[in-house]
Each structure stands twice: as structure tokens, then as C-alpha cells.
Design brief:
16% strand, globular, ten-stranded mixed beta sheet, alpha/beta, 25 strands, six-stranded parallel beta sheet, binds ligand 26Q, 50% helix
């Protein structure tokens, strides 16, 4: 089954080094060795990819196309070696050749082609789709620069470019022969020919889309899928007519214009700015992808009539929503179908996943921009909108409802409504989130087409997020649950529950965690020069910085602890280390202020002798997939404290749970389902429920009252306002919480309403921690019941209920 022995791998690496770099193993640098490893594994996967394609074609299987503007892949070398079953051999071969395997792995840059949850989800699902042997492909943009690198300078976030391709490109296979042309702008000309109306887009600007394929290995299978990343190039790099006139710079303008499309990932998460370059990115990648899919379908079947039987297109939020009019365009303009036939196929091919209920993250595009950039797609979209509106009118006879459901209204194109109109399924990403979509955000559409609305609770790649990153825990699980079975059957983790009364097992669990904490402390010291105390509770909040995620609430509790320590140096008996990691969107000023606040507070506490060995705050720079991989195994407390109703699911929460951390959290997103399996006794829930949040807002929420009535809260907010020893005052955040700011209501995310309950939950957590046996037991239950949060389960549900494809 394994494609390599240590010896054959050594031989393969040796010849790679010679062919590619003209070097022997002794002469090669670590970077060259990393590349050689990637090339060797890539070849193996490419060969298997050919087999997979053949089988899929021969068996005429339906193929899943997963479209996402983001794939947050992280590193691939260790992961691919793991999935191919050659990780031990690779490590040994590297050592034999005089390299440290860990150093080679560490050298690989993260492929950071995503912001956060939505992008990482896509990456986890690629792994599961492949492991479950589903014929599938991912599609995105081959961004030259991924998510920025974060530095903290004087407490503040500074963004640096992420040039991941220098080394990361070793995984990419360019396929220029499969390039596609994507057209922007120009004007439409219509003419009749042979009784058919033809439409051509004239004087358009053409951009070439060049595929770069990344092979995806599954675990314990030869099945191999592909992630296709489109790069943008101009069809004519130099305009020779300008060049010949001596206008050398102008002659390359086209090329520069085309290439900006794939230059950089938009670093905004759960927030949208209607920039024309973003719309260009979306259409560029959608059009190239639909052309690629339909062309391959035609080559295999010679007709488009059965397209929906052999293909399904899953879109990751509305960002690829243009697939709907683009597929219509190809079916009508190129395949010569009439509207109804094309619509029948499109609406049986596309499914949409929603990832957010935040109003500022619902995608809307100005009609004039849309029309200017995509004239033909605009025409089709208006026709979709017209017919959909007719249906809504006929169903409801209610102007307000029709307006709410409209695809185009008041000069704005609403992408979510386009997806609902043109999709066969709409799903949320947790039970609570899907309920909110059905009952609130999309209630009118759901009233008309209730069967379209589904739920698929998110999941994570448990092989990466447990087995690969936490080998100590992996071997404990193997010892207790019957070997590696849980790798393919994550529900087998449940067997761990049987050992809740076994002191020896609980002791081992504690030792594993302790070792992981020590390893993380070493790493943090090497990276940032901070000394962490492995005897303290590692209390962690890592995720994008966003007000709704309430990092500021965490800070308020820490200030409260700090103030208590000032009154009574013995107020804390259980030492605590609060770890934060978060990137803020560069344009999100409040988020950046909160990062600065965390750093001010960390510095204040560091310099206060009263806090020594009791309280520490650390801001971890540049939070990313590879940092999460080190941190999750070392975490003891998982902070999941969003305002109830706002976090669609969360997936970090699942990573913590799987690694035995206990959750302090609200009943939001997938926390609700964690609570379903864990009960009150195995997590620390607090705060308002989603419906209570809604009620409180309706009644008129007055945070100032809480400030007046709660002396601790009063003191905490005052100290925020007064500032810290670094001289930075946070009166702006104080104002925002108590009085609001132009446009935003006071304390929009109800931090003050949940403050007291949160402090109590944290206190209870710390008290529980002191009872080591109890804590370890809870930790074991968390691991045991995390199986349902495996991506294999989630992808299985997509396959069964939405895609209707078979799987392992
Ligand atoms: C859209 C248009 C223009 C610019 C940016 C964007 C954009 C980019 C990224 C909008 C939203 C995102 C990312 C959203 C996201 O990550 N949502 C998270 O998805 C996770 C996976 O389902 C959930 O677990 C999280 O709850 C949700 O916040």
C-alpha cells in the first residue's frame, strides 16, 4: 500500500536534487530539500490522480466541484506524507540524508489563501472528500500574496506581504494548455442567424486564466483529487503596436492590469467592501471554472443535457454566486439551449452554503458596476431576477415580501437571493445558524420553498487536527479504543468515555497535556521571547479579531482579575495564562485598537510584581494554521464567547474540544451542539441565549445602567478609560461600550450584559481546574464526544443530502 520504503524515498530524493538543482544531498540547502520532498510526493499523487480520473470517467460518476474564494491549506508536506502513509519513511530518509525532518517541515510556508473559518473549512473538506473517495475538485484563485503576515510593533499590528509561492509553488503543477479566456466589459451585439438569436461581447478586455493544480491525497486510499488555482495573465504581454512606437511602458499595461486580479487575497473576514477588483476576481475565477467543468463534461459525454446528472457545484458562501448566470450563459450562448432547459439544468446543479448572518457581510453589488464589467452576465441576471420576482409575487401577493426576496432592487444586486433563486439547496453551518436562516434571514424564501433549506453542521479534519498534531494523545486513543480505527471512524472516539473512572488513564491524559504545554512554551520562547509558565492554566482565544467574537469581553474579565489582585494579592490561587491570537482586517480600526489593548494589558501585567506567577497575558503574533497546530494540543481552556446568534458555527471550538480543552462559551453556533453531547457538566456555558439577545435589543438595551449598578464593571471600565503604564488610554473603547458612536449603538454586541455571567463562568472554570481528577475526566469526555465534529461526518451529509453522490 505505501508507495515508498525509506530506501526508495532516499533514492527518489537524491535524483530529484540532482535533476532539479544539480546537487547532492550534502550540497543541498534545507529549502532545496523541502522542494525535492514536495516534488517527489507530488509525482506520486499526480500518478494516482490520473487513475482516479480514469475511474471516475469510466464509471460515469457524478463529480463535486467545490468553489471557494478561499482555501486556507496551511502546510502540505507533513500532511501529504501522512495521508500517503509515508511519514515515518520520510522522516527517516531525511535523517539518513543528514537533515532534521522537523526543520524541513518548519521551513514550508503556510499556503494562506484564506482569512479564517470559511477558508479552513474548504481545506478540511478537500481532505474528507478525497478520503471518502468522492470524485471532487476545489477551485480558487492562485493569489500571489496570501493573508498578510502580522507583526506586532509597539503593541500594534503591522501587516507584511505573504510571499508564499517562493517555496509553496513546489506543490503546484501549471497547466498552461488548459488556460481559459475570461472577458470583461465591452458591448453586446445581437444578431439573428439560422433562426437563432446570437449575442457577442465586442471590444471586451480578455484575461487569460491559467490553472495551477495542487494534488490532494486522501488518507488510506489511492483516490486523489485536485485543487485548481487560477492564475491571471494577459493574452498579449506586450502590445507590439505600442512597443514599436517606443511606448514601452504603455505596451505592458494590459499585462499589469490582468495580473492584479490574482495579486492578493482580500483580507476582510465577515465584512464587505464593494470594490470592483473583488468583483473581477470573482468573475475571473468563476468563468474559468465553469468553462473548465463544462468543457470536460462535453469531452466525456458530448452533450450538456445531462450536465446536472454528472456534476454538482457547491459554492462556499455567495462569493462564487456568479456561477449561476455564467452557467446559464454557457448553456444558452454556447450550447444553444433555450432559457427553460438551461434553467432546469442550472437549478439542479448548484448548491449554496451560507456562513454568516451579519448584515455587513451579506454581499451586494451596485448594478452599474456589475453591468459595466459583465454586460452579458448582467443581462442574464436581470432575466433571472424578473422571473424569480414574478414567482414571489404570484406566491405572496405582498410587496414587502417581494422586495425582501428580490435579486435586484434599487440598483443593487443581492447575491444571497441570487443563490436562493438559482440553487437546489441552501444550507447553514450549524443547527442554530440554519434555524436562524429559516426563521429570520431567509424566512420569506423558506416559506415559498421550505425543502430547499437544510443544515450541515461544520466539521474539521480530525486526522490533521488530532492525530497528526497531537501524537501523544493519538497513541493514548489507539491504546484505549482499538488501534487506529478512529482515523476512519471518528465516532469510535466515544469509547474513551468508558475510561472516565480510570485514574491511570486520567493521569496519562494530564501528562500528555503537560508535555504539550511545555513544548508550546519552548516554541513561544523561540519565536517571541516570552516565557510561559506550563504550570498555569492555558486559557486561549484564537480567531479573527471581530467585535462580535468579543475578545474585548475576555479583556474585561482579565482587567477584573487584575483589579482583584490589586486589592488582595492572594485573590488568585490558580495561576492563569491568557493567550490571544488574532489578525484584524487592515481597515478595521476598532479591531486594531483591541489588539493594541491586549498588548497594553499584557505589558501592564508583566511589569506588576503582584501578578508574578499568578497572571499573564500573551498576544501570539501572526496566528495562522501552522501556529494553531502547535497551540491546540497545548490548550486547556477554549474561549468561544461570541454574542449568541452571531457566530454561524465556529470550527476552532471543535479543534480545542478534540484536543481535550474545555469550553467557556455562549450557546452560539456549534457550541449548541457541543452542549447537546456534553451537557452542562462538561463545559462552562454562560450568558444570554440567541432569543434573549433579540428580546433585549427589541426592548431597548441600556449598558449605562449596568455600569452604574455593577461596581466591578464600573471599576474595570474606568481603568480601561484611564489607560495603562505604556501611556495608552482606551477612552474610545469605553465610549463605544457606554454611548456608542455615529451609527453604531452603545455596546452593539452586549458585552456588558454578559459580563457578570462571564466572570462567574471563568471563576467556576478555575475552581474546577484545581480538582485535577474532575478536570481530566471532563477533558476525556470532550475528546470522546468530539467525533461528530469530524469533517468526514459533515462531508458525508453533504454527499447524502445535497450532492447525492456515493462515498466510503
Ligand atoms: C466578501 C466580499 C468581499 C470581501 C470579503 C468577503 C468575505 C471574505 C471572507 C466575507 C466573508 C468571509 C469569511 C467568512 C467566514 O469565515 N465565516 C465563518 O465561516 C466558518 C465556516 O463555516 C464559520 O465556522 C464561522 O462561524 C463563520 O464566521
Amino acid at each position: 500500500m505505501t508507495p515508498f520504503t525509506t530506501k526508495s524515498l532516499e533514492d527518489a530524493l537524491t535524483s530529484r536534487l540532482m535533476i532539479h538543482f544539480g546537487k547532492t544531498a550534502e550540497e543541498a540547502s534545507e529549502a532545496e530539500m523541502m522542494r525535492a520532498c514536495a516534488l517527489v510526493l507530488r509525482d506520486t499523487m499526480a500518478l494516482r490522480g490520473v487513475e482516479t480520473k480514469k475511474t471516475t470517467a469510466r464509471e460515469e460518476k457524478r463529480k463535486v466541484h467545490y468553489l471557494s474564494l478561499e482555501f486556507l491549506m496551511g502546510r502540505s508536506l507533513e500532511k501529504n506524507a501522512y495521508n500517503l502513509g509515508v511519514l515515518p519513511q520520510l522522516k527517516e530518509a531525511l535523517e539518513q540524508m543528514g537533515f532534521k525532518a522537523a526543520d524541513i517541515f518548519e521551513l514550508e510556508p503556510d499556503a494562506g489563501l484564506g482569512n479564517g473559518g470559511l477558508g479552513r473549512l474548504a481545506a478540511c473538506y478537500l481532505d474528507s472528500m478525497t478520503t471518502l473517495e468522492i470524485p471532487a475538485a476545489g477551485y480558487s484563485i492562485c493569489y500571489e500574496l496570501g493573508i498578510f503576515k502580522q507583526k506586532i510593533v509597539e503593541g500594534q499590528q503591522v501587516e507584511l506581504p505573504d510571499n508564499w509561492k517562493d517555496l509553496g509553488a513546489a506543490w503546484l503543477l501549471p497547466r498552461p494548455e488548459e488556460a481559459k479566456e475570461v472577458r470583461f466589459g465591452g458591448t453586446l451585439r445581437e444578431f439573428w442567424d439560422n433562426g437563432h438569436l446570437h449575442i457577442v461581447q465586442e471590444d471586451a478586455t480578455t484575461v487569460l486564466a491559467i490553472p495551477n493544480d495542487m494534488e490532494i491525497a486522501g488518507y488510506n486510499t489511492r483516490h486523489t483529487n485536485v485543487l485548481r488555482l487560477w492564475d491571471a495573465k494577459s493574452p498579449e504581454p506586450v502590445d507590439m503596436s505600442l512597443y514599436s512606437k517606443g511606448e514601452y511602458f504603455k505596451a505592458t499595461e494590459n499585462e499589469a492590469m490582468a495580473e492584479v486580479i490574482a495579486k492578493v487575497l482580500y483580507p476582510e473576514d465577515n465584512h464587505i467592501e464593494g470594490k470592483s477588483l473583488r468583483l473581477k476576481q470573482q468573475y475571473f475565477f468563476v468563468s474559468a471554472t465553469v468553462q473548465s467543468i463544462t468543457q470536460k463534461h462535453m469531452e466525456r459525454y458530448g452533450t450538456m443535457k445531462n450536465f446536472h446528472e454528472k456534476n454538482v457545484i457547491q459554492i462556499n458562501d455567495t462569493h462564487p454566486a456568479l456561477v449561476i448566470p455564467e452557467l446559464m450563459r454557457i448553456l444558452i450562448d454556447d450550447a444553444g439551449m433555450d432559457w427553460d432547459e438551461a434553467w432546469g439544468i442550472t437549478t439542479r446543479s448548484v448548491a449554496y452554503t451560507n456562513h454568516t448572518v451579519l448584515a455587513e457581510a451579506l454581499e451586494r453589488w451596485p448594478q452599474d458596476l456589475f453591468q459595466r464589467l459583465l454586460p452579458r452576465v448582467w443581462q442574464i441576471t436581470t432575466e433571472i431576477a424578473r422571473r424569480w420576482q414574478e414567482r414571489c409575487e404570484a406566491f405572496y401577493h405582498d410587496r414587502d415580501k417581494v422586495r425582501d426576496m428580490a435579486v435586484i432592487w434599487d440598483g443593487v444586486v443581492r447575491m444571497a437571493n441570487l443563490c436562493i433563486a438559482g440553487g437546489m439547496a441552501v444550507n447553514g453551518v450549524s443547527a442554530l445558524h440554519s434555524d436562524i436562516l429559516r426563521r429570520d434571514v431567509f424566512k420569506n424564501a423558506c416559506g415559498m420553498e421550505p425543502d430547499k433549506f437544510k443544515n450541515v453542521t461544520n466539521g474539521i479534519d480530525h486526522r490533521r487536527w488530532l492525530s497528526e498534531i497531537n501524537p501523544g494523545l493519538h497513541s493514548l486513543i489507539c491504546d484505549l479504543t482499538g488501534g487506529e480505527r478512529y482515523l476512519m471512524e471518528p465516532m469510535a472516539l466515544k469509547r474513551l468515555d468508558d475510561f472516565a473512572g480510570d485514574s491511570e488513564v486520567l493521569q496519562r491524559l494530564e501528562e500528555i497535556k503537560r508535555k504539550n504545554k511545555e513544548a508550546f512554551a519552548d516554541y513561544a520562547y523561540r519565536q517571541q521571547g516570552v516565557s510561559l509558565d506550563p504550570a498555569s492554566i492555558f486559557d486561549v482565544q484564537v480567531k479573527r479579531l471581530h467585535e462580535y467574537k468579543r475578545q474585548l469581553l475576555n479583556v474585561l474579565n482579565i482587567i477584573a482579575l487584575y483589579e482583584k489582585l490589586q486589592d488582595d494579592p492572594n485573590a488568585i490561587t490558580q495561576p492563569r495564562t491568557f493567550l490571544f491570537g488574532a489578525k484584524a482586517a487592515p481597515g478595521y480600526a476598532v479591531a486594531k485598537r483591541i489588539i493594541r489593548l491586549i498588548n497594553s494589558l499584557a505589558d501592564q501585567i508583566d511589569h506588576d510584581p503582584v501578578c508574578k506567577d499568578k497572571l499573564q497575558v500573551v498576544f501570539l503574533e501572526n496566528y495562522r494554521v501552522s501556529l494553531a497546530e502547535r497551540l491546540m494540543p497545548a490548550s486547556e481552556v477554549s474561549q468561544q464567547i461570541s454574542t449568541a446568534g452571531k457566530e454561524a458555527s465556529g470550527t476552532g471550538n471543535m479543534k480545542f474540544m478534540m484536543n481535550g480543552a474545555l469550553t467557556v462559551g455562549t450557546l452560539d453556533g456549534a457550541n449548541v451542539e457541543m452542549h447537546d453531547v456534553l451537557g452542562d457538566e462538561n463545559m462552562f456555558l454562560f450568558g444570554l441565549r440567541a432569543d434573549e439577545v433579540e428580546n433585549l435589543k427589541r426592548q431597548g438595551y441600556l449598558p449605562q445602567r449596568l455600569y452604574i449598578r455593577d461596581p466591578l464593571l464600573h471599576r474595570v471600565l474606568d481603568s480601561l478609560k484611564a489607560g495603562f503604564r505604556d501611556g495608552v488610554r482606551y477612552e474610545d473603547l469605553y465610549q463605544r461600550l457606554l454611548f456608542g458612536e455615529r451609527g453604531t449603538p452603545a455596546d452593539e454586541y452586549l458585552l456588558l450584559a454578559d459580563f457578570a455571567a462571564y466572570c462567574r463562568a471563568e471563576e467556576k472554570m478555575a475552581r474546577t481546574y484545581a480538582d485535577r481528577r474532575k478536570w481530566n475526566e471532563m477533558s476525556l469526555h470532550n475528546i470522546a464526544r468530539s467525533g461528530i465534529f469530524a469533517a468526514d461526518r459533515a462531508v458525508g451529509e453533504y454527499a447524502d443530502n445535497i450532492w447525492h453522490v456515493s462515498h466510503r
